[in-house]
User: Fold these one by one.
Assistant:
Number 1:
Amino acid sequence: MRAVRAGVVVILLLLGSSCNSGPDRRVPSSRSAQPGFVSRAEFGDRWPLTVESGTLRCEPDYGTALVIVVGNVKYALNGRARGQIDQTGWRDSRELVRKDQDGGLANVGPLIERGLALCK
């Protein structure tokens, strides 16, 4: 009986390890390979948004206007983009920004810095 239990445990361990050896299922590889793709998995505790991921895009028709695309919705991320909300129909990214420990908005500076590199 002990040999049977030991065999079952070994089989379960092998099955469990093979299931965990694949890619991270939370971030599809095709999306994560896109320029501008950012995610909570990448930023960890510094992730400022309430969504899991998005794609940063520079909008060259509006100078250095930077948006983050979540689903099919564009959110204005920096001041230049927020100044274009009425003309473009973009939403304000502050809708997505989580509260920090002091009750203010979390710092989106690292996202803006990353996104502005796309504008070059």
Number 2:
Amino acid sequence: MKKNILVNIILICAALPMLIGLTSCKRSNVTDPDSQKPSGFRITLKGLASPSTLYVPNTTSVVKSVITATLKDNTGKALPNKKILFSEGYYGYLKKNSTDTEDGYLISAEAVTNASGVATIYYEIPSGALVKNSGTAYIVARLIDDNDRTDNPSGEVYDTISVIVIPGFESGYELSGKVLSKDNKGIEGVVIQLKGGTGKISGSLITNSDGSYGFYVSKGWFGSITPDTNIYKLLPASYTFEETAPVMADYTNLNFYTSTEDELAVDNDTFTVKGMGETVSVNVYNAKSSTTIPFLVIPQVNWLESTPLEGETNTTIKITANPNTTSSTRTGTVLLQAAQSGILGSPVTLTFTQASGPNMIASPSTLTFAAGSAGESKSAIIKNTKTSDILYWKVDTTNSSNTTWITYGPGSGNTNSTITVTIQVDNTTGIERTGYIFIQAYDSNDNKLEGLYAILNIIQQAS
């Protein structure tokens, strides 16, 4: 019995150094990250796309998103001079910088983190890209050295960045701006939402380091752009484009600001304009101080137009009411919206009332000639059938038919004057042929009256 105990003790004593030795093999100069996670050891990588939604036109220029990957340790310290590999291979391509042309378009690209631990590349979808369906591009940002400094069981440090891709705009416009503080400095990290006319969110992004953001929308889009933040009180609460006055131009100064104490004002906010069309001037100023206030001009109906669409106080803008070709008086408004928050009086509403305007016609509206009518002439009178206003007119050759078998004259005149059409050759084609002359109206100052015109049709019968 004592012999057995002695043998067991000897075996235990022999095994003890081996157990101690095995334990000491796990120790190294670097503390085990899976157990104690020492300060400064663990690495995190966070990716971001701005904008996170790309609206891809069918025929216009390249659309682009800035892709960043921020590398830090678990104390929040930035890690510079580290290589990050970005890769994607479905919708678009990667570029090392926004103007890079030498490397062309890549499905993977490396970038090195800067002093702030940020690596940057550009994700582009070129013009004419065959993007037929909406979807999401997944861009992987991966650290390609120091991969042992991670808690990930795979030993990799990476993040996946999503970019929503929406195709199919024949033509479109930019809606962009900045989120700015009272001292006019950009505010980074504010979520901006693009909402369609139904209120449904169709895109969102986060402002860049300078506070900037930008969306691309189709021609005729209507809806709103709204900041989504509980941290800042921003004004205006949103920018809204109504269905009656949708987006038909670029708006690049849709800024959101924190509070100020200035007041946007105008010298007159109510106008009665002529039915045949009229342009009025509006003086815009700051009623509280000499500080300039940037503002936007947003017509709420399509028959009111502004020059310019944005500006600063202590300036004059011009609002044009196009001819009222309807049979009744109409009213429309234009909003002057301060492009920063906290501005008293913003938005200013300009109200326009316009009586029914003139109507220009050719009488008769159709001139009919026989097949064998070479050398024959007929005339039509250009009339204003609704008001006593004298209208002036010119033949618009661009919008008239390209018809070589007729001539006409004169090429301009006023209401109650005539235009004469002469047939140059007989119609020997065996089928009836037609043409038309587009006659555009002008006022006495030779300003084109948009939407006011007459069409004179010409028919030459078959033989």
Number 3:
Amino acid sequence: MSKGWRARTPRTPTSAEHPGAAVSWEGEIFEVVAATPLADGHTRYTLSPWDPRHAIRTLEPYDEATEAARAAGRAETVQGERRRWRAIALAPLLGHLPGAVQERMEKEYGAPALLMTYASALPLFVVGVLTLLGVLAGAFGGRLEAAAADAPLFPFLRWIPTPVGLYLLGESAFRLLSAAAASTPCGSLGGILGWELWRQAAGKRAAPQSTARRAPEPPDPSRLHADRYHLLEPLLALLRRDEQESLAARYGFDPLRWGRRTAGWLLAFGLLNVALSLLALAAATAGMGDVLWLLAGSGLAIEQRARRRSLARGEAAGSVLGALVRPHARVILEPGTMARALIFLMLSGCVGGVALGQAPEPAATPPPLWAGKAELSYVATSGNTDTQTLGAGGEVEYRPAPWAVLFRSAFVRSEAEGEENARALTAALRGSRGLSPRLEVFARGDYLQNEFAGIAHRYSAEGGAAYAVSRAHRTS
């Protein structure tokens, strides 16, 4: 194999001769006069005694110890390259591990951590979207035929329960948004739990040998408290008001900022559950689970609306969900105690990047709370052919910052010689919430009826995030 030794460069009419690498072998010094690559990948070196006219700049030792170290380094390089490609090939699986583990793998193996997160989250996001489309299609279409139950919209998703598919949609969407917004990898719940179970099992197996090793240094309690605070920061707004005030005094927690964000997300989640449950009830396909989700979503939406009123008055507002957060925040609520909980592991993969986000920029002059416009048109022609066209449209926008709701509708009807030849009705509802001056999340639903185009009823839904790349100021 090549040792990296430089061969002699002969003299030319325009350049002087340069000696090859100096090699120390059995007490004597030799010069590498030639290095010939062979067909099998090895290199043949030709040595000659060193010419004392040349100065020795670097001396390469050639002995058993040096060759063994060189072979070990070469093997480590080859092994590291193999591990890198193996990690890239297994990215759809390794991307479910905790974000810190993915970052460590990137440092050790060179496999991009963000690539692993995207490769593992995108397929599950697609599965979740298809599941949601199947639910909406079933809710709107109902069970027209008994065979519909045996012919689902996406047959290849038959073995994935609907709740699992919807959960994958929410989790993978959160992971993708977290990775894109914070540029940090994010694991999944299953991957984090599996990793922690493996660590516990590996630690128990290695326990008998731990007596021969040096005991690890005790962790710094203040550092552990700070890490726990940053990981749980978005969820601390669900605690009681007095607890939030205590955290604000101790860690600088902003209850109004995180309260608005959590209230907005939970309100959207509650309204989504209410809408899906009502669709199931309207299609006569609802069960007891849909009724329970309707009640839970309604209660959650009402509570978040009340929280938003309190936050608008500048007062911190907790939630009944704070009971789920309090056991895992006890270490920062009561210094000196350390609570270990499984749900903390769920949050440690993703929330850290979000918790370190910057405070929002000061808002400019807010737009009007209500805005709208209406249009009405009528066109009539006479002559060889008499035609009449009637059009109407309008939109209404409601912007209770940071929310924005826009409803738009249009209708057109046309007839020729007293016979109707066109009729179309469109409607769109879009809701969005700004998370920062540049980032917002949105959901949109559209309806189209155009029987002359062969469309009796068409419903569509979409959702995602929008990021403003440039914010140019208007000039006049």
Number 4:
Amino acid sequence: MPSPLTPSVGSLLGDFYNFPDGCTAGERKTSNRVCRLADARARKTLVVIGDSHAQMWMPTILRLGQSDGWTVVALVKAGCVARFWTRAEAGCAAWYRWAKRHAKALRPDVTLIAGSWAATRKPDRDIAAIAALGAEMRGSSAAVIVIGDAPHQGRSPVDCLLSPRATMRTCTTRATASDLRADRRVAANARRLGVGFIDTTGWFCARVSAAAQLCPMAIEQTIAWVDRGHISQTYGVALARPFRWAFRRELFRWGRNPGGRELRPAPTPSSSPTRRSAMTSATSSVDTTPTGASERESRTSRWLVEYSCMS
């Protein structure tokens, strides 16, 4: 295993984002204080809706908000996975109705949807719920973007990394066909609905053959996962640049002005990086190069080739 690892294995379970007090719906709660995070004075509003997988992306999203001038409003309830949004489990249905009502009232510039569907035996209900929310929010939000759910780990990272015989090979999971298929279905629904989709798999896994993708617990010297299904805050911050590029690509591809007029598409990677889009007045200068995303994915691939296949 590489050394030293960041965060340390001993502090790994604490390396997860926590909302300010009152800014998320706790256990048995169906609402929370609506907090304005990142750039609280910004004119642009970005609403985040989802479960603990929305929560795990908050460090990355808040970096985006601070750098590009977004007020971030999180309507998040851990444990309320998408398949429970219309059911009574843990008060999820009541919370979901509250979250949608507040999101629509804000008429945000962007709605980000994040949820857990990987490692689910039958993700059909989750996939349908994500699509339904995306379709519904299109009527109130100038743009809607879904964050993909990368394949989960097969073992607890703490247990694996503390094993006396731990290697990159033993602490790497092979992505299951069902996880990859579920993510593709969510992406296909998004395209059909005119909703953006951020594919996160390449930030966590690398294709090593036509049929296999390997997903290590540690990438370079950073532990990417807190547990089997949630990414570490440290790795989330490391992904700020590729996430920003992917977010802006989808924003310019699928965004609409509040009046319904379609925005011009984002410049292609071969275009001049100084070219402006119709939404430039609402964002900072457009980063049109995919370097952040592709660089992170290629580094993950090189890391796996060097360590997983040799250790």
